[in-house]
Amino acid sequence: MDVRYRYFLLVGGDGNDSLDGGNGEDRLNGDGGNDSLLGGGGNDILVGGIGTDTLSGGDGSDRINGNAGNDTLIGGANGDFFVFDSNRTFASSDFGVDKVRDFVSGLDKIVLDQTTFGAITGADIAIVSQDSLAATSAAKIVYSFGTGSLFFNQNGLTKGYGTGAKFATIDNDNNSTTLAPALTVADFQVVA
Q1: Which of 19, 69, 80, 91 is the most buried (most CB within 10 A)?
Q2: For the whole model, what pTM was predicted?
């Protein structure tokens, strides 16, 4: 018996689009414009494009990649994967600064692709208390729990970020007085 994986593919194209996958496993691609993508039920794949997009996974274990622009990423129920992969060497214009709204430590994952961030491992990830410490950390990926900022520190201990930059903020609440969530190295997944 042959088993084939089936999902629905919705592509927004140019312009500002609203895509709703409904129940089932879907792949939603926003493409151009400022798009709103809702996965709904099922394990969905949501991919933004150029523009300021809002991607919300809904129920299920979803893979969410904002791509270019300053996007808002919301996983919803279950363990979700917030993916940062531009299919090429890191450039801040490929990401903008995305806001991850509902990250749950120990359940969700920040997925970092080695094509984008280089040959990183778990040893290349550090947690610091404030943003100013990120620019001189020996680690390549630095999370500042004081602000929720996530940085790519391409040049390590040399002052500044080299070709890296801040690429995300983990911010679970719209209230600016709420502290960013405490993350551990185990909340990150490095993929080739």
Answers
A1: 80
A2: 0.91
151-174 confidence digits (pLDDT tens):
999 988 888 898 899 999 998 765
For residue 122, the tally of other CB atoms under 10 A from its CB is: 11
CB 84 within 8 A of CB 169: no
Amino acid 178: pLDDT: 60
Report which DSSP code applies to 66. -
pLDDT digits (tens, 9 = 90+) for 57-107: 999 999 999 999 999 999 998 999 999 999 999 988 888 999 999 999 999
Helix (H, G, I), strand (E, B) or coil at 131: helix
Which residue intervals of the chain are DSSP H helices? 114-117
Number of helices followed by number of strands (H, E) in the chain: 1, 16
* Residue 17 CB contacts under 8 Å (≥ 6 apart), including other chains: 30, 31, 33, 35, 36
Give me the pLDDT at residue 1, please: 47
Classify the C-alpha dihedral 122-123-128-133 as positive or negative: negative
Number of Cβ within 10 Å of residue 107's Cβ equals 13
